[in-house]
Each structure stands twice: as structure tokens, then as C-alpha cells.
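Teaching soon. Invent one.


***
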Amino acid sequence: MKLHATATALLFASLALTGLAQTPVPSNTQDTKITKSDLKQQEKANKSQAKADKAQRKALNTKQQKKADKAQDKANREAAPLSPQ
């Protein structure tokens, strides 16, 4: 019995020294889970931003600049739900 107690004490001592004995356990991992709707919203925002970027590159006169600005505004609205609250 004394050998078992000594081995257990050594095990806990080594764990304490390495820091493994006090490793925090996450209380809720559900917050980090990405849902399918989150992925769809991200894809929608990415497409809108790509469209805005393309319109900005083509903006040579004022009419095209207005179109580019409108596309950028839409991209910003699409990305708004993705921003951290």
C-alpha cells in the first residue's frame, strides 16, 4: 500500500509541476460552433464584397462611381450581421 501511495503522490507532484493538474476546462464550447446559416451569411457577404470591389475597379465616371458606392453599401449591410456584438 505504501508503494501505491508514493506512486500516486509522485504522479500528482509531476502533474502539478508541468501545469497539467490545473488545466482549465472550457465551460461551454457551443459558442464557438459555426452553424450552416453562419456559413451562408459569410458566403453572401463575401460575394457582395467581391461585387463591390469589381464595381470599384470599373468606376471610371461618376455614374459608375455611384454604382460602385451602392455595391459597397450593400456589401457593408451584408457584413453587418457578422460583426461581433
The chain has a mean pLDDT of 74. The radius of gyration is 27 Å. The CA atoms of residues 33 and 39 lie 11 Å apart.
